Amino acid sequence: MYTKDFEPYKYPINRNVRNNFDIKNKSKWFINNNTNTQMKPKSKNKKIGNRWKRMLNDYSQNTTLHGLRYAGNNELSASERCFWIISFGLAVITAIYFIVNLVHKWQDMPVIISLSPKATQLTSIPFPAITICNMNNARKSVARTILETSSKFSSNIDRRLLSDFCDEDPLLMDSAIDNYTGDWDSLKKFMIKVSQPCHDMIVSCQWANNHKVCSELFNPSLTDEGICCSFNKVKADYIFRNPKDLSDLNVTFPNPSANWTPENGYPPNTPAEYIPWRPWGAGNHLGLTLVLDAEIEEYYCSSEVSYGFKVMLHSPVETPKISSFGSLISPGRETSIEINPTVGMATPALADIKKEKRQCVYSAEKQLRFYKTYTQRNCILECEANFTLMFCQCVMYYMPKDSFSRICGKKDEACSDKAKLAIELRYSSPLTNMTQLLNGTYLPNCTCLPGCYWIGYNKVHSSSPLANSYKIKPIYLAGKTSSYFKTQCVAKCTDLSEQSLGKVPDKKTGTLVTAIKNKIQEGSHIQTIERLWGSAKRRNKKHRGTARHYLDSYLTEFDWRQNLFNDPPSIWSYGAQIWGCAKPTQIKKIEAFQSISLRTITSAPWFVSNHTLHKDLKIETVENLVKTHYKKFHSKLLHHPNPLIANQQTATIPGNPHRRLKRRWCRDLLN
């Protein structure tokens, strides 16, 4: 095979030599027709080398790779060809380097986490399960009854359990009571007896802007804080694998539950009334609103150094750990919790990768012993229960267990705390050496990886004190007095939101209030209020808030409400007869500032209208006050001795001149 430029007619061969030449006999000699010199035939290796040389030269001339065609160009100098050869070689080496890095990166992290391009509707995910616990471990009235009861065996057991629950020194009892380990039935009866019932804790409920019976929304649940109240948590049949063999609270659900899982979601055609309920939309009015009663007078011993509630948001198919992850809520305050759900999903191609590399688990890949649905929290809690049973020969009362497992008592507290700490350190600090902590006991690796499908709820909560002067609706009192409500109860709202508002700096808090109080008392008019109002809006513009945040530090000074609004002649109504005829847009600015100030001072909830607020506080609106002042002023003009002033009481100016467009006169306030 010849190359394109090969021309055999330029190199003729002698006919006799060509006829007598034996290609197979390489020892033959042949004679060149031009020079008649004897030549030795080429070796096989040299022929192969020339062939590859011709092929590479032909490839370099016809390739489209940048730079390589210049390396094989015979018309270029040797230095230029060498430059292009070196450049091409460096480019190939660089490409190989980056390819190797990508391969190593894929081997280390084969999963890429990114934001989904598709929007997820709020109605396709469940509203979070909410568990609320009173920090009171035992009610005072029940504790006194237990302590004053005659010394019976059952009463002594309750005394011992009471001292254990409250971390008190054990009372003097006989050896039988001292060595009594107890069983689940006795412990469950005691916890139900001393805990605050859900119908006493939750006074009023509002779900999706509709008032509901709280017993239909909340059910008692067993947690590490004792017996608490849970909302939107599915029944035990969908949480545990064998609920009949599991020692737990016997709870009846008034509403049916659906077999929802983070991976499979809701079954097809699931009705809206099935638990877990789905949110109706974003906003406080479409969320959950509660009124909670702390029963402070019933506090006997608290799980913390304060009184109030612990609240935790979690998945509807998980068992919460309130003591470690719960948020504290104080009584006597209105608390708002903003919920931002986060949903994790995996592509089908991820299932072909080993779980050690993708670092997540599908529900079908790992079966838990007690829990029916795999989540990382369920796996860790079950691992903690199994290790505690192996290390201490008992389990804590809130852990998943069967009816034959022994419940850990006060004597086992040190051992169970070590087991709990070891499991927590295993997942928070895997490199920690726990041989000394566990006295050489082997700590099993439960490999509780996150689920490939999961749902989380991030929360941002804020609170403000309940106002002493605010009138509480009877529907929220539940037969109690208003003063009781303001000291014992919590108004709590939870809602799903699209985004969070930024926090307002605290440096200038209170500056606006002081400026308004001083400026208005000097007899200024609408321009002063407008200037202060605009300044507040400019300060707060980048925080997407309003001037209301700058009034929060003045909430306790209720004398300001009386001085600013209930004593108009001395404060802000100076010259109302004159500036009251300003444009409606200017009057609206003062009305808006007045409404925001009243709402801030009284901490009025969102569902209270401005009209109701003015009516309850007996404060006139700006429009009504201006009309009242001008009518009083106009009545004095009729019989005034000065004729120029007396003419001002007429309906129009003498001569009835034309008004400029959209211009109001003072006498228009008479209508």
Automatic annotation (TrEMBL):
One GO location term (cellular component): plasma membrane
InterPro entries attached to this UniProt entry: ENaC (IPR001873)
Keywords for this protein: Ion channel, Ion transport, Membrane, Sodium, Sodium channel, Sodium transport, Transmembrane, Transmembrane helix, Transport
Pfam family, one: ASC
Residue ranges crossing the lipid bilayer per the database entry: 82-100
Top-level taxon of origin: Eukaryota
Gene3D superfamilies assigned: Acid-sensing ion channels like domains (2.60.470.10)
UniProt subcellular location: Membrane
Protein family: Belongs to the amiloride-sensitive sodium channel (TC 1.A.6) family.
Protein name according to UniProt: Pickpocket protein 28-like
Originating organism: Aphis craccivora (Cowpea aphid)
